[in-house]
Amino acid sequence: ACLPGEYGHATGLDECTLCEPGRYSTANRTAQCLTCPPGSRSATAFGSLGCEPCVSGTFSGGGVSACSVCGAGTFSLAGAAECSTCPNGTFSALQGASFCEGCEPGTFSTGGQSVCTDCPAGRFQWSNGTSFCFDCSPGTDSSLGSVGCTFCRHGFYSGTGFPDCIACPDHHNTTGIGKTNVSDCVPHCLTGSSGYNGVEPCTLCAPGQHGPGNSTLCSPATVEISFWDGDLSIP
User: Fold this and answer.
1) Which DSSP symbol is given to 95?
2) What distance in Å separates the CA atoms of residue 201 and residue 193, rounded to the nearest whole number?
3) Per residue, what are the HEC states of 178-219?
4) Where would I find the Tyrosine-protein kinase ephrin type A/B receptor-like domain in this sequence (predicted)?
5) According to CATH, what is the number of the domain 1-68?
């Protein structure tokens, strides 16, 4: 009589065959072996007496002697019939993952990814485990993979989501940081003039007065006088 792990081709015959990989039998005189269900594998390659669940990070559709490894960007718990895709805001870098990791600040993922993507320049993300990045506000910019945005410095401006602040035209400047439009760039008064306040035009200083570049006021000019004390030789 056939033993567990075997099956007979006909009832009463002593000729028995070991159960094939992915199949099993538990009783004597079995005419056929049973197929291991999805999420499991046969305990041995041939002649198995039962099935074992797939370990986490692997899966099977049933009828196999070895479970398959989940690919990067997916994961599984024990006894899985298929791998699950990593959800938005997470990733799995290696094969055979039993869980997915959350993306770090400055990065994001849209699910099923083996790595998180850096937020592009002009965008940012301050939180863990997200699937998107925010646009930088007007008057700011950011570099790749940023967790926040930086105000445009003097002489620069930007709109929404700009990767870089834009320089004012030649001979123009801004009255402060974080400016949002080219109209915020005002004439840059040159040395010898005044009026740089973002409203009044630059005007030349009156005779005897001096104005450094970007000055709003002219001030009395100072003259340095030096004396030479020495002999003057005339040939």
Assistant:
1) T
2) 10
3) CECCHHHCEECCCCCEECCCCCCCCEECCCCEECCCCCCCCE
4) 5-41, 73-106, 139-185
5) 2.10.50.10
The average pLDDT across 52-58 equals: 98
Q: Assign residue 171 a region: left if phi > 0, alpha if psi is -120 to 50, beta otherwise? A: left
Residue 31 has pLDDT above 60, yes or no: yes
Tokens at 183, concatenated: 């109209």
- Cα distances (angstroms) measured from residue 51 to each of 69, 81, 184, 218: 18, 14, 74, 93
The more confident residue out of 221 and 104 is 104
User: What is the predicted pLDDT for the residue at 28?
Assistant: 83
Question: Mind listing the pLDDT tens digit for each residue in 109-147?
Answer: 999 999 999 999 999 999 999 999 999 999 999 999 999
Q: Which CATH architecture has domain 70-118?
A: Ribbon (2.10)
CA 91 – CA 101 distance, rounded (Å): 5
The amino acid that residue 18 corresponds to is: L
- Residue 51's φ and ψ, nearest 5 degrees, are -120, 155
DSSP summary character for residue 164 = S
Q: How far is CA 221 from the centre of its chain?
A: 57
User: How far is it, in rounded angstroms, from Cα 69 to Cα 57?
Assistant: 6
